[in-house]
């Protein structure tokens, strides 16, 4: 999967949640002019605080935004996406499990991790 630029990612994410720049401004106290400049690649290095606010609102991983802003390594962000996808698959499949069965799954995961450390 190819990583998009920060501006494209932000614009797509905003549109996916159905918000205008003015609505985002009202919800985050980030000016719509600044948001527009971010989306149009005129601002290249926003603060982590700004990206964190947008990440929460847009339901996009903060690591993805940090990676696209070149504030962290892309491999680290990709690994986070893989971990999230795996966690979502487990959560979906665990819906019908009892509490005891869920605990057994967690114990098994811990067993696998401990076995891996012993290698």
Notes on the protein architecture:
- The mean pLDDT is 86.
- The longest helix is centred in the C-terminal third of the chain and has 20 residues, at 74-93.
- Helix 2 (21-28) packs across helix 3.
- This protein has two domains: 6-72, Orthogonal Bundle (434 Repressor (Amino-terminal Domain)); 76-117, no CATH class.
- Helix content is 71%, strand content 0%.
- It is mostly helical and 119 residues long.
Helicity range of the residues? over 70%
CATH architecture of the largest domain: Orthogonal Bundle
Give the ordered list of helices and strands.
Answer: HHHHHHH
CATH homology superfamily of the largest domain: lambda repressor-like DNA-binding domains
Radius of gyration, whole Å: 18 Å
Q: What general outline do the C-alpha atoms trace?
A: elongated
State the gist of this model.
The protein is built from seven helices and no strands. The mean pLDDT is 86.
Name its key features.
single chain; 0% strand; 434 Repressor (Amino-terminal Domain); 119 residues; mainly alpha; 2 domains
What is the secondary structure topology, with strand pairs?
Blueprint: H1 6-16, H2 21-28, H3 32-39, H4 48-58, H5 62-68, H6 74-93, H7 99-117
Helix pairs in contact: 2-3, 5-6
